[in-house]
What we know:
By secondary structure, the chain is an alpha+beta fold. Strands 1, 2, 3, 4, 5, 6, 7, 12 and 13 form a 9-stranded mixed sheet that branches. It has a 4-stranded antiparallel sheet with strand order 8-9-10-11. Helix 3 links the parallel strand 3 and strand 4. Helix 1 runs antiparallel to helix 2, helix 2 packs antiparallel against helix 3 and helix 7 packs across helix 8. The protein is globular and about 50 Å long. About 2% of the residues have low confidence.
Amino acid sequence: MNSGETEVDRLDYALALHGGAGSETLFLGRAEKQQYHACLADTLKLGKSVLEQGGSSLGAVETVVRALEDDPKFNAGHGSVLNYDGNHVLDACIMDGRNRACGAVAAVTTVRHPIHLARLVMTETEHVFLVGDGADQFAREMRIELVDQDFFRTERRLRGWQRALNEAQGAEDENSQHMGTVGCVALDRDGNLAAGTSTGGRTLQRFGRVGDSPVVGAGTFADNNTCAVSCTGVGERFIQHVVAYDISALMEYRQLTVGQAVSHLFKSKLPADSGGIIAMDTCGSIAMQFNTPGMYRAAADSAGRVEIDI
Length: 310
């Protein structure tokens, strides 16, 4: 298990992001690694600039996740995997640490940026979670950017779907190469935390399956009193163990640091190859941990930290 945590005094701002975890990193060539590194660096710079200019943590989180949703290398938005029927169904969640306000969508099929729709659920409705046709209808009412299913599809994902279908593997599991989700956590100059997560789900998933990414407390959580969390991996495990909220609870009730809390989850509850977690406390200390061979990740803060790795 790889782990990292930096203890600091209260920072002006901090940002961490991930682009999924798994064993895919073992098979990347040098050029591919450079491409991923460059993408993570550009996205990190984009989110950092929002915070440097006094923008909100929510704004930084949405900016980062939208950028990753548009990058075909990641399983979110453009570049999402295909379900059993050969379609794309997307999930996202965003949460405001100031008051635990949150918005989530699942199984949307026409929305270019599901993270934006999730934020609108939070700000423009009295609800928290919209799914399927209802979420797509809400998107139309909000007049946000809609796209055809072909927009999400790439040759790489189509080949992966056809290979999995031919081999009759069922949905991706512990042996999958890439458990793709994108996410971000941020602390702004006002001391507010936020978290967001977006995903295209699992290859060949069936029966209306929804993973942890849009589930508040499982794959995404933020509370100014404790931490902001975004998870990636085998969604069912993160739901079963209420991972994102459990990190907050360990910090609040057992007084663990953010790094200790994340480590506890991996040691006591999440079996090998479950995935990865990025988390940040109220001072801007960052933990990025995973129990897979790799996780696309990056972090920066007002003290000058810049970390990019896969």
